[in-house]
Amino acid sequence: MTSDDRGNAGKIALLGVPVDLGASVRGTLMGPAALRTAGLGGVLEDLGYDVIDHGDLLERDLVRTSDPAPANTRHYHDVQAWTRATAARSFDMASSGAVPIFLGGDHSLSMGSVLGVARHWERHGRHLSVLWFDAHADYNTPQTTETQNMHGMSAAFLCGEPGLERLVEGPPPPLRPDALHLFGVRSIDREERQVIRDRGINVVDMRRIDRFGVVDVMQKILETVRARNDLLHLSFDLDVLDPDAAPGVGTTVPGGVSYREAHLVMEMLYDSGLIASVDIVELNPFLDDRGRTARTAIELIGSLFGRQIAGWPTPTNAIRPHAD
Predict the structure, then answer these.
(1) Which of the two ends of the chain, N or C, has the fewest CB atoms closer than 10 A to its terminal CB?
(2) 174 pLDDT band (50/70/90 cuts)?
(3) Which residues have a catalytic role annotated?
């Protein structure tokens, strides 16, 4: 894909979504500030991008409804308000021609961020595939959830599963279940697993990564996205990483993606030229070790946007910064 397909691919727009009510462990509301403090904007600017920081969504931006809350959904009205506000801002950011990056916040923010970007591209006759980089599938519904936490329902909502239709106004989310790629998964609830099988969701769990390696499995995902002529949203939950590399998350699961494997994935995504938007979620500075998880996230995002140790040539279809 060329830069013209995405508008001005040299522009990056940042938006903080400091929500932590979708999770059981509070603290991710501090995530956007930690990512900025760790130097996200500076890394992207050093790579030659025009970075526009839109600040954070604030409580005053939210409108709560009196809709009946579905059973088994903790903080439903709060998450609904965040989702609606995020979706509106996401649509506007994607429409500006920039590559939006959403700074979380727990993974419930992706209900709004992905929805807004997908609606933008649907208006232009394109579809969005989503790479869900996560230790968990997040494909629970109010009927299957074991925790009632709504950050565990984000992917299910985006694929139109029943029970969460009133989270947003307008048509249902345009994401097709077969356009969702779960990567790095190693914790799936029992009933959630059956729904995933029934829907034909693409699952790359850690066993598959261990057996075939990240290059093989990522190449297959990218080939699938290209064959569909889709754009790609990366929803990057930091708990996909092994806890040794990223201790600052509320739901650590042993045996995750290694630091080097994650860098390789990011480098492959950059080379693909398919990335249209990004979430960085579940960073909880309260649980971090002297900012280690935030710094790791920044290093990986640098690789996603082209930072390389060796001076390999840049593919012609990669995201390109502004020319000087």
Answers:
(1) C
(2) confident
(3) 107, 134, 136, 138, 151, 237, 239, 282
